[in-house]
Amino acid sequence: MSTPILEVRDLVKQYPALTAVNGISFAVPEGNCFGLLGPNGAGKTTTVEIMEGILAPTSGEVLYRGEPLGARFHEEAGILFQETALQNFLTVRQSVAMFRGLYRRGLDIDEVLKLCSLEKLAHRDNRKLSGGQRQRLLLAIALVNDPAVLFLDEPTTGLDPQARRNFWALVQSIKAQRKTILLTTHYMEEAEVLCDEIAIVDRGRIVAQGPPQRLLKEHFAEVLLELPRQDFPQAARRLTLQLIEASERVEITTDDLDGTLRTLISAHVPLKNLRIRPPNLEDLFLELTGRELRS
Amino acid sequence: MMRRLLAVWHARNLEFLRDRGALFFTLILPLSIIIGMAIIFSGPPRPLFKVGVLGAHRAAVPPAPPPPLAQPRASHAPGRGSCPPGRCAADPFLRERYVQFIRVASRSRGVQDVRRQRIDMLFAPGDPPRYWVNTDSPKGYIIQRLLLSADPQAQRVQVTGKTVRYIDWLFPGILAMNLMFSCLFGVGYIVMRYRQSGFLKRLHATPLTAFEFLGAQVLSRLSITVFITGALYIGVGALIGFHDSGSVLLLLLLAVLGSLSMIALGLTISARFSSEELVNGLLNLITWPMMLLSGVWFSLAGSPAWVRRVADALPLTQLLHAARAVMLYGAGFSQIAPNLIYLSVITVVFLAVGAWSFRWRI
Question: Is A71 on the interface with B (CB under 8 A)?
Answer without folding.
Answer: yes
